[in-house]
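Lecture 7 notes: from sequence to structure.
We start with the chain below.
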Amino acid sequence: MMTFSARRARRTTVSAVAVAVVAVGLSVLSGCKGGPSGAGAPAPAASSAAPVAGAFEPEQALAEAEKAPYAASIKGVTEAAGREMSTMTGRSNLGTVFTGRAEIRSTGLWMETVTTADANYVRNRTQEGSGWVKAPRSPDNEADYAGYAKLLLAAGPSAKKGMENRGGVPAYHLAGHLDLDQVASIDPRTHRSMKAKGVTGFDIDQWIDGQGRTVRFEQRMEMRGMQAVNKIDFSEFGPVETFAAPQG
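Predicted structure tokens for the same chain:
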């Protein structure tokens, strides 16, 4: 039987990991070259084993992704030790300068962020009457999801899992393991955050559509002795949007 002190230690450990994983999740999402806003779309349906119409090669799709930035709705879930620790919803501009809005929720935490072309704004909704706090933009608040896909492809044929159907959308499934230092140039904020927490690498599953846009991104790692997972869905693609500073 677990003693009181052991249970308390267990809760403390889980709480510490929860905070760390929320930070990683924030880093992953806010490094999307765009921040989020509003509710994300439901997670895509399970992949289909049947042949998928509209098949394409991932290399060609990624070349298309470099031609035009876009906006997308985002829904992210962070788990640690098999438990959901935080959710993030929002809308982002991707493939261009990071701007957008996000809402992050977990036990005892409810935060909103808005990133404009020249500043970052944060509001803690768990504190009644809390206003927006303005801060400078992070100089490395950029992530390149196409860059992640290219790193996976560079690992060789084993990364190419083939075409699948994600919620009615033809998507190419890529998967593999990346050492942390491999992502330093394409996602410096995540690199810095994970390195500080002792993470040395992680497994990735990534699905891209025919225009090279990421529709699903899963990241799994060990953090402080527990398994942590970030799962992000991208949907409602459209033209780049303008995100203004919040009022009030």
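Points to note: The first helix runs from residue 4 to 30. The chain has a mean pLDDT of 81.
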